[in-house]
Amino acid sequence: MSDEGQSEVRHNQARHRFEAGSESYPAHLDYRLRHGVVDMFHTEVSPEYQGQGLGTKLATAALTWARDSGHKVIPSCPYVKTFIARHPEFADLV
User: Fold this and answer.
1) What does pTM read for this prediction?
2) How many angstroms separate the CA atoms of 15 and 19, rounded?
3) Does 45 reside within a domain?
4) Digits of tens for pLDDT over the chain (94 positions)?
5) Full strand arrangement of the beta sheet holding 72-74
């Protein structure tokens, strides 16, 4: 399986999610935005892409977007919560 196209993260604002991977094997981080607060509630990476860093890329893109947009974050997704604990540079968003 080629690496090409798998690592590009797209912000699908219409579906309130960040996406990566292929259509056949999608990876995504879902969020809700309300009153300037982003609840990042679900991250999913297909087994075909696990261990390739897609979750990290999704979380980094989503948290960077939140920061650039001036939003605070509720990390209700266990993956995002753990990611922030391991990357204290994003702790100020919580």
Assistant:
1) 0.90
2) 10
3) yes
4) 344 445 699 999 999 999 998 888 889 999 999 999 999 999 999 888 889 899 999 999 999 999 999 999 999 999 999 999 999 999 999 9
5) 10-12, 17-21, 26-34, 37-45, 72-74
Domain that holds residue 78: 29-93
Is 17 a member of any domain?
no
Tell which phi-psi region holds residue 31, choosing left (phi > 0), alpha (psi between -120 and 50) or beta.
beta
Q: Is residue 24 part of a domain?
A: no
Integer Cα distance of 27 and 42 in angstroms: 11
Flag whether 59 is in a domain.
yes
Give the separation between CA 69 and CA 6, rounded to whole angstroms: 25
- Which of 28, 26, 35, 88 lies closest to 58 in space, CA to CA? 28
Taking the C-alpha atoms of 81, 86, 91 and 94 in order, what is their torsion angle to the nearest 10 degrees?
Answer: 0
Which CATH number does the domain housing residue 74 bear?
A: 3.40.630.30
Q: Can you tell me the distance from the alpha carbon of 82 to that of 1, in angstroms, rounded to the nearest whole number? A: 29
